[in-house]
Amino acid sequence: MSYTKLLYHSVFCTKHRKNTIPETHEKELYAYIMGIINNKKSKLYRIGGTENHLHLLFDMHSTIALSDFMREIKEHSSKWLGQNPNFPDFEGWAVSFASFTYNLNDKQTIINYIQNQKEHHKTVSFEDEYRQFLIDNGIEIDEKYFLKD
Description:
Blueprint: E1 7-13, H1 26-39, E2 43-49, E3 53-59, H2 66-83, E4 98-102, H3 107-115, H4 117-120, H5 126-136
Antiparallel strand pairs: 1-3, 1-4, 2-3
Helix pairs in contact: 1-2
């Protein structure tokens, strides 16, 4: 038996960062993604975002690779969104995502941050937020690839 407890904060956006997730129906999407995560024997602590991007705080089963986990969330939710009339403008997710690990002691801070997304993005663009996450986590940004779909 392996024991792990890794908190991941993942961020990903809609294709071309278009506003295709209407606030009136976002909870449907959140519930669907929670179902995907639960089916992977993983735990979602918080999901939130705006019309053009999502934040997830979760821990995942130790047998799953992060890239596979994120690919499946995006793949399954993209198919569901494409068939759901409440998301008529959705064209897909952008190819990339960013994920960072946090200490269990940071859990409530990240939950609060995700809950505050709509207020946060009244003054900060998604692009600036994403760039700052990368910088804060020591990731060098290659501008020719930054947020390219």
